C-alpha cells in the first residue's frame, strides 16, 4: 500500500485496521465496524466497475450477413455527418425507393435491442432512437467524447456498434478506445458487437483511419418514447400500398438522391471543380464507367451545372468495362451501382453459383463511345486518385480482372432482380403489422418468393 511522504507503516491502516498491529498478531481485529467498512468499500468497487458497463459480443453477426449489410451501404450511401464519413440511414433508404433494403436490418435491430435490455436490465424500457450503416474512410477520426455530449443527443441512453469488416484486413487504423475501464481497446472485427452506455461513464474515441473503409451498423437506444425511430419510419412508409405485390418489382428501382448528398467532398457540391460523385467513384475503382444509352455528350466540364449532372445520372445508362459495353440498360447510376456491387458480393465474395447463360450480349465500344465514356468519367470523377484512396483498398475486380466475365454479370442482373423482389414482398407482408402496432419488428411470414 502506498504511503504519503513521512508516513510510517504504523500509521497506515486498511479500513481502520492498523497494519502494524496486524503484523504483530496472528489475526487482525476484525470488529463489526471494520466489517461494515469493508463491505462498504467492496460495494463502492462494484459500483465503480458498473459505472463503466460495457459488453463485447464476439461473432454476434455471421460473416455473410456482414457482407450483405456492406452491399446495402456501399450501393446506397450518402455523404455523412463528419469529414470523410459516409452514411446510410433507414430514412434515406426509404426516401430513395430502397425501402426493401431495410428488411435484412430489422432482425438485427431486434436482437440488439434484446441484448441491450437484458445486459443493462431495462427490459421493455427502450426504443430505437437511430439505426444507420456508417463507413469511415481515410482521414476520419473522432476524439474523446460520450454519445450524448450534445443537447440534442441527451435522449441517448445506450449504444450498439456492430463491426461489418475487420481491422488490418479491410482497413488500417480506426481502433476504438475507451478512456478507462475494461476492455479499454477494441480492435474492430467483422461480426463483433460492442454495447455500452451513452453517457460520460463510457467516454471513447476512434483513431484516424489511415487506409480502407471501416464499416459499422450503429444503433442508439433511448428510454424516451418521443424519440422512437419506428413511428417516423412507419410514417415515411405510408405511400407504399400493402397490395402492391409485383412479380417483376419494376416499381422498386432506386431513385437517385440529390446530387449534393452524393458529391464528395460536400463543400464542392455546388461548384463540382474537384472530388467525385460517390456512385461513380465506387464504379471507377471497380473498373466500370458509365455511358449514356442516348449517346448524348454534354458540354465541357466548366459548363456543367448541378441540374445537368443530376439529369445525367438520373437517365438510362449503360456500363462500360475494358472497352466493352454491356447489353443491359440501367434506370440510373444508383441502379447500375447496386447491380455491380451485388455481383461483387454474391459472385466474388460468396462464390455463389449463378445460373450463367452460355454467353452475354456485349459490344465493343466505338472510338466515339469511348470518348463519351471518358468524358463522363471526367465530369463525375474529377479526382480519381481520391476515389481510389477512399474506396480502392480491397478492390476485387481490379485485382482479379481475369475473374470477370459478362455472362456471370448478366446472371447477376437477374439475381439482383429476384433478391430485390423477395425483399420487397417481405416488406409488404410486414407493413400492415407495423402500422397496426406502430413499431417495426420481425414478422414471421415464412418463405417469400
UniProtKB/TrEMBL annotation:
- List UniProt keywords, sorted A-Z: Dioxygenase, Iron, Metal-binding, Oxidoreductase, Repeat
Q: InterPro entries of this UniProt entry?
A: Oxoglu/Fe-dep_dioxygenase_dom, P3H, Pro_4_hyd_alph, Pro_4_hyd_alph_FE2OG_OXY
Q: Name one GO biological process term.
A: collagen metabolic process
Q: Which Pfam families match?
A: 2OG-FeII_Oxy_3
Domain Fe2OG dioxygenase as annotated: residue spans: 122-223
Question: What cofactor does this protein call for?
Answer: Fe cation; L-ascorbate
Annotated EC: 1.14.11.7
Listed GO MF terms:
iron ion binding; L-ascorbic acid binding; procollagen-proline 3-dioxygenase activity
Work out whether the entry's keyword set contains Repeat. Answer: yes
Q: Which PANTHER family match?
A: LEPRECAN 1, PROCOLLAGEN-PROLINE 3-DIOXYGENASE
Q: What is this protein called?
A: procollagen-proline 3-dioxygenase
